[in-house]
Amino acid sequence: MSACDLSVRIASLVLRNPVLSASGTYGHGLEMGVFTAAAELGAWVSKTVTLEPRGGNPAPRICETEAGLLNSIGLENRGLEHYIAHTLPLMAAADTVVVTNIGGERVQDFAELARRLDGESAVDALEVNLSCPNVQGGKLPFATDRVLAAEVVRAVRAATHKPIFAKLSPNTAGLGEIARAVEGAGADAITAVNTLLGLALDWRTRRPGLATVQGGYSGPGIKPVALRCAWECARAVRIPVIGCGGIQDAADALEYLVAGCTAVQVGTASFADPALPGKLAREMASLLAAQGIGSARELCGTIHDGREARDAVQAR
Ligand SMILES: Cc1cc2nc3c(=O)[nH]c(=O)nc-3n(C[C@H](O)[C@H](O)[C@H](O)COP(=O)(O)O)c2cc1C
User: Fold this and answer.
1) How much is the pLDDT for 313?
2) Nearest-CA neighbor of 105 among 50, 53, 155, 160?
3) What are residue 191's phi and psi, to 5 degrees?
4) Please, what are the domains in the chain?
């Protein structure tokens, strides 16, 4: 066992290590438990929960590409009531921090979800999926507009006492501004980022890989983009940033910490190796110990980027 201290703090939560599951990739109950016990995670993030059940998009809705995955699941889930009655008890039993990811098509949907989950003691934090399309605003995702993104977070803040992670999208310019806007609206942390918009097709059949034609690109191919997004957010805000995108091994995860993140989420890579989320923390500890670094926190924001991100991180 290595002597490295991996624990990190996000708002009022103390995580035993900085590795979280990424929403939608770690199952809803016991699916992953045979490979990675949730107790090995710093926190377990649920798939996006919506007020009403959603059937999701037509198939095919997953498509493998050269360096990652395209998906257009369409937020399929059984709705809030089913989540509270059936999924949450399984998550609560797992001896880790439980984060419920929420999604909606209107600001009031997010507020209602937050209000109803506020009374659930098993929920330790809410992650707000701002990549959902805003049906009242031309279906553009909330995350692409700093005013709208802040409006959602403000509404969630007013409806809950729990820590809020605002999950941002890479599909926009001015990410630092958006990060600042959601921080100002009351977010306790930022998750950076969700999937990139992508397209795959077969030139012979002329058919796209997904029934919805475009979808969300994830996996190793997005890492440089996602890492830049996380770094941009970390420079812009004082709240913790949770990096997400393309992490395949412990070195990838440590790069996110150097870029200014307090923790990371791992998604697509766990489809190829379902035991990965559990392994990551152990491997991070050995890599840090081999460098004589005593804690994950020491690495946070140590990038030599001219305007040291560390100054902002140390003030947290
Ligand atoms: C199949 C699949 C389903 C996903 N479902 C959700 C979801 O329900 N809510 C959400 O916020 N993000 C969802 N994501 C995005 C991931 O949580 C993560 O942000 C993204 O995949 C980038 O990380 P990765 O490259 O490690 O997968 C999903 C990703 C995949 C691949």
Assistant:
1) 64
2) 50
3) -100, 120
4) 8-56+76-196+218-314 (3.20.20.70)
Residues 169, 162, 99, 223, CA torsion sign: positive
Pocket of ligand 1 from Cβ distances under 6 Å: 22-25, 47-48, 69, 71, 73, 75, 101, 129, 167, 194-195, 218-219, 222, 244-247, 266-269
Q: Cα separation of 127 and 148, whole Å? A: 16
pLDDT tens string 142-173: 999 999 999 999 999 999 999 999 999 999 99
Strand locations in the chain (E)? 8-10, 13-15, 19-21, 43-45, 62-65, 68-71, 97-102, 125-129, 164-168, 189-192, 196-199, 201-202, 207-208, 214-218, 241-244, 263-266
**CA distances in angstroms from 249 to 24, 160, 201, 242, listed in the order given:** 19, 35, 29, 16
Residue 268, token pair as written in the block: 């697509």
pTM of the full structure: 0.96
Per-residue pLDDT reduced to its tens digit, 252-289: 999 999 999 999 999 999 999 999 988 999 999 999 99
